[in-house]
From TrEMBL, chain A:
Protein's job: Component of the elongator complex which is required for multiple tRNA modifications, including mcm5U (5-methoxycarbonylmethyl uridine), mcm5s2U (5-methoxycarbonylmethyl-2-thiouridine), and ncm5U (5-carbamoylmethyl uridine). The elongator complex catalyzes the formation of carboxymethyluridine in the wobble base at position 34 in tRNAs.
Region ranges (Disordered): 1-20
PANTHER family given in the database record: ELONGATOR COMPLEX PROTEIN 4 (PTHR12896:SF1), PAX6 NEIGHBOR PROTEIN PAXNEB (PTHR12896)
Lineage: Eukaryota, Metazoa, Chordata, Craniata, Vertebrata
Protein name as annotated: Elongator complex protein 4
Composition bias, Polar residues: 10-20
Key words of the record: Cytoplasm, Nucleus, tRNA processing
Organism: Cyprinus carpio (Common carp)
InterPro entries linked to this entry: Elongator_complex_protein_4 (IPR008728), P-loop_NTPase (IPR027417)
Pathway participation: tRNA modification; 5-methoxycarbonylmethyl-2-thiouridine-tRNA biosynthesis
Automatic annotation (TrEMBL), chain B:
Protein name: Elongator complex protein 6
This protein's record includes keyword Iron: no
Key words of the record: Cytoplasm, Nucleus, tRNA processing
Pfam family membership, one: ELP6
GO cellular component terms given for this protein: cytoplasm; elongator holoenzyme complex; nucleus
Length: 396, 269
């Protein structure tokens, strides 16, 4: 028994930390909140929802773009965006939030609060190394020889851990939220820049410039010297393609700017590939009239998922779907630095938003308990009688 | 390089047809593994390769190339490989105030103007083979494009792209006896009435090419063990007009892809 077994706050929940420290001689600076992928060694960050991480192959690779097709009322896609940003706050990443409808500060105030065990680990790390007092009721009775061993270091627990759980009914504490550095871009407050010679309309152009300024200034593309600790930038872009961004791809059959969003995504991916950042973009795809444009948008992103919620549709009363809030379609999974991509087991996935977890599960068909069961029974009895009669016995 | 694909197409790095225009297309699937095959194939054959990588970064191809046994970084240093990385320079080009027509990525700033800058870049690259300082003479030039249909998303018209491929074919295949491999990604067949669509582009390119490889998902639905089907269409070549089509199933692994006749997957047998 190497680790002291006592009721320390947070130790039982963070069960995989032991006093065993691996000797690492690698020169790679490990960034908090990331881990290398098992499949191809890519650096992954969590999307905030652990079942979504599992579905897309372990997590979001740094340098890639996640596209979320919104559901009809933008409730669950907005929830996913908030999980993504909350995960960034808890891991200590930098955030960049751009939206055209709601002010970014409003979205930041609605972030769900992380579940207490994890955060307690962070708070304990402030006042660590307290010697065990004699009147501490948790003195060990059996393994008393280990009483004076140093406490297992939980200081790194919250940053080493990949993927956290959030309580949707509470919002994140302001202190925790303000500890994270957040850049915001609110489209309605930006002054339109006249860019006559650019193929992009002004809002997208200014958004790209703003993203590039942040990346360059904070050194995410490696341009500043390594005096600071390396970090990951999380970009959350809400509802791109909607009319508020100056784009008419969602409201016309033959939009005037039909290439604006696709050009924007192409250049955004170029920016992501050359910096330590991850982007999550939500698009109201149910409003686009042109399916070909959605196909191109999906191919221009790396990972693409679509949410289809049952609210307001006839599927809400369907007994097949009564346990779930909606369906999740995985449209595309990326092949990064390897030939093959993560091949999912099944493509029938449904999601449910519970208070403490956003679960994504395989959709099962319920057992068919109709009259066929009776027929099977009848057939069985008849066969038994035939067998008995053929053997010369009297039927029972 | 996939050995099974070589035997299907009857070509090896030591002996392959020249002046070939190979079109790789897909519909709702991903045919980029074939581009990796051709990249390693032609590098092994010792050809001078001009690669327009418009959708992925150099390190992606380099990592896959290492698994397939070729080192792209080394080839680039020696001058055998010229790589145009579209993603990396795209933002810089967009922000520039002066747009020069002769720049390769000038279509980002003015998509309506056509692809002349890109063609000039390709031409200068493939004609350079004779005048290297080290005196290394490479084989016939090869042009690889991954992926041409992204230019449609950036606003270039189908006509301009077809013009570009005609110019390239005239220079690379007819004049210099080299090969060309182009990847085009298409939409669904019935998403039509779209004059600027990728289906139009694919039909135009199939008409020009010698060999068309078309990758699709299985018509019966999703399967974990068989990743899709590939149709090989041998088209006209010179005077001989042979029009032979065959369908194979394939599965992509870490280090390659295996091709087999329909119904003979190892998961089934």
């Amino acid at each position: 028994m190497a680790a002291p077994v006592r009721g320390m706050i947070g130790s039982t929940s963070i069960g995989n930390t032991t006093s065993f420290q691996k000797k690492t001689r690698s020169k790679l600076v490990s960034i908090p909140g990331t881990r290398p992928s098992v499949q191809n060694g890519q650096l992954l960050v969590s999307s905030g929802v652990s079942s979504l991480d599992y579905v897309i192959g372990g997590g979001l690779a740094v340098g890639t773009l996640l596209l979320v097709e919104e559901d009809h009322y933008d409730s669950y896609s907005r929830m996913l965006l908030k999980y993504f940003l909350a995960e960034g706050v808890v891991c200590g990443h930098e955030l960049f939030l751009a939206s055209a409808r709601d002010h970014p500060d409003d979205i930041m105030q609605e972030l769900p609060s992380p579940i207490v065990d994890d955060v307690a680990g962070m708070k304990i790390s402030e006042g660590q190394s307290q010697p065990s007092d004699p009147e501490n009721p948790d003195t060990m009775k059996i393994a008393w020889r280990y009483q004076n061993q140093p406490k297992v270091q939980t200081a790194l627990a919250s940053s080493v851990r990949f993927g956290h759980y959030y309580d949707v009914s509470k919002t994140m504490e302001p202190e925790l939220r303000q500890a994270a550095k957040c850049h915001s871009f609110y489209q309605l407050q930006e002054t339109p820049v006249v860019t006559a010679s650019s193929p992009l309309p002004s809002p997208y152009h200014s958004l790209l410039k703003s993203i590039q300024t942040v990346i360059r200034k904070e050194g995410f593309d490696g341009s500043t010297p390594q005096s600071k600790v390396r970090n990951v930038l999380r970009l959350g872009l809400h509802s791109l393609g909607s009319v508020l961004w100056g784009d008419d791809v969602c409201c016309k059959d033959n939009p005037a700017h039909c290439h604006a969003l696709t050009t924007f995504l192409y250049i955004l991916r170029g920016l992501l590939r050359t910096s330590l950042s991850v982007a999550m973009v939500t698009v109201p795809s149910h409003l686009t009239q042109n399916r070909a444009v959605m196909g191109r948008i999906i191919r221009l992103s790396d990972t693409a998922i679509a949410l289809e919620s049952f609210k307001g549709s006839e599927k809400e009363t369907n007994p097949l779907y009564k346990d779930y809030h909606g369906l999740l379609h995985v449209r595309q999974l990326p092949r990064l630095n390897c030939l093959s991509c993560e091949v999912p087991d099944t493509k029938d996935l449904a999601f449910k938003l519970k208070r403490k977890q956003f679960t994504i599960e395989r959709l099962h068909l319920p057992p068919d308990l109709s009259e066929t069961l009776v027929d099977v029974q009848m057939g069985f009895t008849v066969t038994c009688r035939i067998l008995e009669m053929s053997q010369g016995r009297a039927p029972l | 390089m996939f050995p099974e694909l070589n035997s299907i197409l009857n070509s090896t790095p030591d002996s392959f047809k020249s002046s070939d225009f190979i079109l790789v297309s897909d519909r709702r699937a991903d045919a980029s593994f074939l581009i990796h095959h051709y990249l390693s194939f032609y590098l092994r054959a010792g050809c001078k390769v001009c690669f327009l990588g418009l959708v992925q970064s150099f390190s992606h191809y380099s990592a896959v190339g290492q698994r397939l046994g070729v080192s792209l970084a080394q080839a680039r240093e020696k001058g055998q490989l010229v790589f145009l990385e579209g993603l990396k320079e795209s933002f810089g080009v967009l922000l520039q105030d002066t747009s020069q027509e002769t720049q390769p990525l000038s279509y980002l700033r003015s998509p309506g103007a056509g692809l002349e800058g890109l063609f000039r870049f390709v031409e200068s690259c493939v004609r350079q083979s004779g005048d290297g300082n080290a005196g290394e003479s490479w084989g016939p030039p090869v042009l690889l494009i991954d992926d041409l249909s992204v230019l449609l998303s950036l606003g270039v018209s189908v006509g301009a792209i077809l013009d570009f491929t005609l110019y390239c074919q005239a220079t690379v295949c007819s004049e210099l006896q080299g090969n060309m491999v182009i990847l085009v990604r298409c939409e669904e067949e019935d998403a039509d009435d779209d004059e600027e669509g990728s289906n139009l582009l694919q039909r135009g390119l199939v008409h020009q090419c010698n060999l068309a490889l078309h990758v699709e998902g299985l018509p019966t639905g999703y399967c974990r063990d068989i990743h899709g089907q590939m149709e090989v269409w041998w088209r006209q070549r010179g005077e001989t007009i042979y029009n032979q089509r065959k369908i194979f199933h394939f599965k992509v692994h870490d280090k390659g892809a295996s091709f087999f006749a329909r119904g003979t997957s190892s998961a089934v047998l």
